[in-house]
Amino acid sequence: MKLIQETKRLIRLTRFRFVNCFLLREDDGLRLIDTNLAGCAPDIIAAAQGLGATIRRIVLTHAHIDHIGSLDALVGGLPGIQVAIGRRESRLLRRDFSLDDGESGKNLIGFPGAKSEPTLLLKDGDQVGSLRAVFSPGHTPGHMAFLDTRDGTLIAGDAFVTQAGVIAAGTFKLHFPFPSLFSWNKELAAESAKKLRDLKPERLAVGHGKTIESPVSAMDKAVDSAFRQCRKLVK
Q: 3-class DSSP state for residue 134?
């Protein structure tokens, strides 16, 4: 894994140059946001040790395989570690694919489940250390993004990607179809992208691609594109 120091507090750990997870410095140690692919646990633990700090909690944006791949190994290797995930998304962590009344979308795929059980179930607006949970469904039914209230960094999971410019989940681009192919409900994803844009983050950190400084203008364009594809007007 490659380590990229994004800010004095945020470190991006990237595998194969396109799958990211993040270490975030807090007063009591480190938060790990997502766990990358299977097999990454030794590198993540080594990265934390290299920073001279301990991972105190794992915070998950969603339960796709490339975000929870090393969860069980990390929980096994870090006794007492806490695991936080959105309440709705926690069902997908245990491979419960049932839908709530009014929910609809593509078939739910890419959820291998995990043996580890969360210790904290999050709802919109909950605080985890410096991170405020932002419910942002669409890519998955219970997707969460996290805003660092200290410096305005938005860790957006897969609500946006930046590999081919800033693109909102659910948006189809002929040259880069993945945000559309792997998102569950593009209409919800567009609404969530707008909600995250309206936070006016100072930087945008994502599960796939580079971290973007001063991203609001690029997020505006991504939101407009997402709504156009949904045949909706941006309000």
A: strand
DSSP H helices, the chain, are: 41-50, 65-68, 71-77, 87-93, 178-181, 186-197, 216-229
Q: CB of 105 within 8 A of CB of 88? A: no
CA triplet 49, 132, 88: central angle to 5 degrees? 100
Domains (range + CATH), the chain: 2-229 (3.60.15.10)
CA distance 178 to 192: 18
Cβ–Cβ contacts within 10 Å for residue 230, how many? 16
Query: What are the start-end ranges of the H helices in 59-101?
Result: 65-68, 71-77, 87-93
Q: What is the pTM of this model?
A: 0.95
Local confidence pLDDT in tens for the 235 residues of the chain: 999 999 999 999 999 888 999 999 999 999 999 999 999 999 999 999 999 999 999 999 999 999 999 999 999 999 999 999 999 999 999 999 999 999 999 999 999 999 999 999 999 999 999 999 999 999 999 999 999 999 999 999 999 999 999 999 999 988 888 889 899 999 999 999 999 999 999 999 999 999 999 999 999 999 999 999 987 544 4
Pairing of strands 203-205, 153-155: parallel
Residues shown for the chain = 235
Query: Is-contact 217 194, C-beta < 8 A?
Result: no
Q: Measured in Å, how far apart are the chain's first and last C-alpha atoms?
A: 41
- Contacts with 162 (C-beta within 8 Å, 6 or more apart), sequence order: 204, 206, 208, 209, 210, 211, 212
136 touches 124 (CB < 8 A): no
